[in-house]
Structure formats: C-alpha cells, structure tokens
Amino acid sequence: MLKELIKKDEIAAMKAKDKARVNVLRMVNADIKSFEVNERETISDEGVIKIIEKNIKQTKEALEYAKQANSEEKIAEGNFALEVLTPYLPKQLEENEVETMIKEIITNGNYTAADMGKIMKEIMPKVAGKFDRSKINPMVKN
User: Fold this and answer.
1) Domain with 119 in it
2) What pTM was computed for the model?
3) Does the structure show a pLDDT above 80 at 129?
4) Are residues 25 and 75 located together in one domain of the fold?
5) A GO molecular function for this record (predicted)?
C-alpha cells in the first residue's frame, strides 16, 4: 500500500538524517492520519494519491508566491518538496492521450457542447492522479 511505502521512506529519511525529506513526508503522513481519524476508516491508495495531489498543488501555489518575493530559500524548498512527492503519483498521462480519451467519450456518448458537465464527470475518474485536473476543463471546451 502507498501509505506504508511513504511511512517506510520517512523512517529511512530519519535514519539518513535527511531533515528536508523527513519534513515533506511527515506532512503527507500527518494528512493521511488526519483523514483516517476524521473518517474513521483506513485510507485507500486513491485517497493517498488525492492527498499527495493536494500537497503538490499547495506547494506549487507557495512556489508562485516565493518567486514573486524572490525568496531563493523558499523556492529551493518548494522544488525539493515537488521532487519528493511526485514519484508517489501514478505514471502521468500525456496531453495527447487525454485529448484522445475526451474525443472517445464525446463520440461514444453522442455528447454535444451543452453536455460538458457529463463529459467532465466521465473523464475525471479516468485521469485522477494521472493528469493535472486544471488542464482538463479547457481541453473539453476545445
């Protein structure tokens, strides 16, 4: 399970005294634990992927602010966090692969431009964790 892999990697980073890696993985493990306590259930790999995606999104937003402030230290921290978190995501889809999936959905479902919500509902589960969700809406519009 992905949750155990992250925990093992955190322990390995602790033994290696890699504080930066420990901090990133500890943040993810805290989010996982929080989810499990709040929901009173064991988290699935899909749930862990959603948490990692959320952390990546937050890190990218923080990077934007750090770049605006010209904070080299924060930029380096953000890039390192992205470098640590990205390998836990499934293999990412290419843009042309997603476009092909969208075209198939539109063709098979006989959808029109007015059915954008239905198309989005169908494509989102297929690309969850494998493609940047913010790029899908414009692709469907096209």
Assistant:
1) 95-141
2) 0.77
3) no
4) yes
5) carbon-nitrogen ligase activity, with glutamine as amido-N-donor
Q: How far apart are CA 26 and CA 63, in angstroms?
A: 19
Buried/exposed code over 26-63 (b: 16+ C-beta within 10 A; e: otherwise) = ebbbebbeebeeeeeeebeeebbbbbbbebbeebeebb
Are residues 69 and 100 both part of a single domain?
no
Q: Let me know whether 73 and 17 are in one domain.
A: yes
pLDDT for 30:
96
88: nearest Cα among 61, 58, 51, 38: 51
Q: Tell me: the pLDDT tens digits for 30-83?
A: 999 999 999 999 999 989 999 998 999 999 999 999 999 988 999 999 999 999
Same domain, yes or no: 12 and 82: yes
Are residues 17 and 69 both part of a single domain? yes
Instruction: Count helices and strands (H / E) in the chain.
Output: 7, 0
Of the candidates 36, 56, 38, the one whose C-alpha atom is nearest the C-alpha of residue 47 is 36
Residue 20: φ, ψ to 5°: -65, -45
Question: Which residue, 68, 88, 108, sits at the end of a domain?
Answer: 88
